[in-house]
Amino acid sequence: MAAPAGEIPQLTADQKSHAFVCCAGQDKDFADGIVAAVQAHGFICTTEKDFVAGVEVKDNILKAVSEARRTILILSKNFIKSEFGKFEMLQAIRNSYKHSRQTVVHVLVDIKDEEIPTELSTVTGIDARGRSKEDVVKHVVAVLMAPDVPMTAAISGFVDSTAHGLAWSYYYGYLKLILPGFIDRVKRSEYWQDEVNKRRIVPKLFILLPESCFCWPTLTDNDSKIQKAGPLEEFTANRSGNICRSYRNYVYKVQGDDGEEYYFVAEYATPLLSLYEMSEGKIAGLDNTQKKIQRQLFQHVLGQILSHSQAEPCKNAYYLLPYDDVMPDGSNKYPISELITKAIKEELGK
After folding, report:
1. Do 319 and 343 touch, CB atoms closer than 8 A?
2. pLDDT band for position 139 (cuts 50, 70, 90)
3. How far apart are CA 132 and CA 152, in angstroms?
4. Which of 49, 52, 96 is nearest to 71 (CA)?
5. Parallel, antiparallel, or unpaired: how do β-strands 201-210 and 318-323 relate?
6. DSSP secondary structure of 75-127
7. β-strands 242-247, 235-239: how paired?
8. Measured between alpha carbons, how far is 97 from 119 in angstroms, rounded to an integer?
């Protein structure tokens, strides 16, 4: 076969193949034909034939997905009914979120459009229905040759995730309520009314996203350089039978390296504390690796939600601050005062 136009993409240090090809047992002949033709073009492909004997199938799948530049799903009626097929699909999607790029491709074999899993609604698809093998291979090669594409701006339908639910709950149950009037509440505060302090406060909610998911009771507990200043005007709303439920945000102050005091409103993304406690407890069965995956996905989905056109009332009222808080000694005493001061100065144009 003729070689593809251009150079085959180089694999990174943690990638072992250009594509991990998944299929149901009944579709192996079809998949093997695609794999053989694609390999003839110079691509490295892996399938279940490359699984390590003695290792659990799901562990083999996780390894194959994580080490492949792309995961190709041979999407058939048999595949979507298969337990392992569903697992491969979900792990492939998680891998996309992990790397913030499209890594999943599905090849439609014998299912109708309306039978395509909603989780794959924003995933690149190749329609093999009624096409020759040569035509299908041509499209697969084109996908493998294509450069990496960032995750689509559309919010994915991926729902098999603790983090996904936490992000939506955090938005609808909290941020959607407090952010629309947040800037006005800051501007009505004593910290804004003071002409000197006005130049040292950012009317945004700084949302802290620590890598460990551990959230200190107060920011002062985390970093002694941060001091409490006082509460903002409270916001109330009737919510789920709770009359005049109160929402209150707190103002902190920190001294910058220029000697000036800066004021800000910040808090941890509370769902991360739930993830932390789930990983520490024994009820949820969430191990540390799963917690890390969910935390990354939480940040990604939350960012997508807040940047969506329907979240316009929240625009300009928040600042997401992700950071790795695990210190060399294993503690979570990360100096967030430096991180926040830097963000404040950037916002103030200093």
Report:
1. yes
2. very high
3. 29
4. 96
5. parallel
6. E-HHHHH-HHHHHHHHHHHHHHHHHTB--EEEEE-S--GGGS-GGGTTSEEEE
7. antiparallel
8. 12
Cα–Cα distance, 74 to 21 (Å, whole number): 7
Predicted confidence at residue 215, as pLDDT, reads 96
Q: What is the tens place of the pLDDT at every residue in 77-136?
A: 999 989 888 888 878 887 887 777 888 999 999 999 888 887 787 777 899 999 999 999
**DSSP labels, 142-175:** HHHHSPP-BPPSSPP---S-HHHHHHHHHIIIII
Q: Rg for the chain (alpha carbons), in Å?
A: 24
Which two tokens mark 241?
Answer: 């039978």
Sheet holding 17-22, edge to edge: 45-46, 17-22, 68-75, 104-108, 124-127
Distance (Å, whole) CA 47 – CA 24: 11
Exposure string of 238-256, with b = 16+ CB inside 10 Å and e = fewer, is eeeeeeeeeeebebbbbeb
Q: How high is the pLDDT of residue 339? A: 93
Looking at residue 139, what DSSP letter applies? Answer: H
Q: What pLDDT does residue 333 have?
A: 87
Q: What is the pTM of this model?
A: 0.59
Enclosing H/E stretch for 254? strand 250-255
Both structure tokens of 33: 């034909």
Query: How high is the pLDDT of residue 198?
Result: 57
Could you tell me the sign of the dihedral formed by the alpha carbons of 113, 115, 118, 119, in that order?
A: negative
- Gap between the terminal Cα atoms of the chain: 59
